[in-house]
Design brief:
The protein is an alpha/beta fold and about 325 residues long.
Amino acid sequence: MDQVWAIVVTRNRKTLLLECLAALRAQTRPPDRILVVDSASSDGTCDALDAAGVLADARVSYARLEENRGSAGGYGHGIALAARAGADWLWTMDDDAEPRPDALERLLVAPAAADPGVAALAGAVVLPDGEVDVLHRGHVRRFMRALPREAYRPGHHPALDFASYTGLCVRGAAARAEPPPRAELFSWADDVEWTLRLRHQGELRLVPESEVIHKAVMGGAAPTARGRLWGRVLGTEWPSSPWEEYWKPLYGIRNFVWIKRHLGRPGLLTLPGLIAAYAVKALLFDDRPLRRLPWIVRFARAGWRGDFSGPTPEQWQELASR
C-alpha cells in the first residue's frame, strides 16, 4: 500500500492545529505519517501537542523551525523531509484546515490517482458552511483565474494550472523530481509558483469528491459595500483585505509578478498591465484604496526586479499602526 505523509504547517494557532490533527488521525484511510512543521510559534504549540497526547502517537513527527519562514519555507522543509523519506504521496495543508473524514480515501481511489501521468491531486476546499472556496484552484493566463463552482461536480476531474497547499496531494516521485517551494517568496502565491512547476512532472487534477474545510477566509475580511456592488455587476467575488494585513496581498502581487516574468512569457506591457489590474481591483473592492496604490506599484516593481526584501510582516504591523 502507498505510504502517505500528511504535512501540516502551523504558526501560533495551536487550537486550530489540534482540530486539524484530530481530523487527520480520524481519517477512514489514515495517513501513515503526520509531519507538523512549526514555523517558530510562540504560543506554546509544542506543549499543547504534548498535553493533548498527540506527540505520543508514533505516526506524528514534530519539526520546529527557529524562525518564521512563511508558508514557502515551512512547506519547503516538510516536503523535503517527506520526499527524502520515500513517501509515495505528500498531502499538504495549513493548521486551519479540517479534512472531511473520507478526504484522503477519496483522493487515493480517484481515477487520476492511478494515472502515472498525474503529478498531484487537488481536493475541493470548502468554507465551514460547505460552500466551495473557489480561490484555491484555477488557471493562469494573463492573470490567475479561479476554477468556477460548476466545475466541482462529482466525477469531473479537470486539469488545473495551480492549487493552494490546502488539500493538495502530491505524488512522491514528482516531489523528488521538482525542487521544493522557493523560500524567498515567503508567502502568498508561493503555492502557485510551486504547482506551476509541478506540472513539469505531470498533470494537476481536481478531485471534488475529496473535501477539506478551510476555516479562514482567503483575503481575511468580508467584501466592502462597493465590492459587493461591483461583484454583482462583474459576476465575481473578492474579499477586502484589511489594512493591517495588507502585507499578504502585497506579497502576492510581488510574487505573481515574479512568476509572470520567470515562468511566463513577459512582454513590454506585462508589468504596467499587472500594476493597472491590481490598481483597478483595489479601487473596486478594497477599503480606502488610494493609500494602497503606491504600495501596489512598489511591490509589483520589486517582483519584476526579484527584490524580496521587506517590509517584513512585523515591520508592516508597525507601519500599519501609524
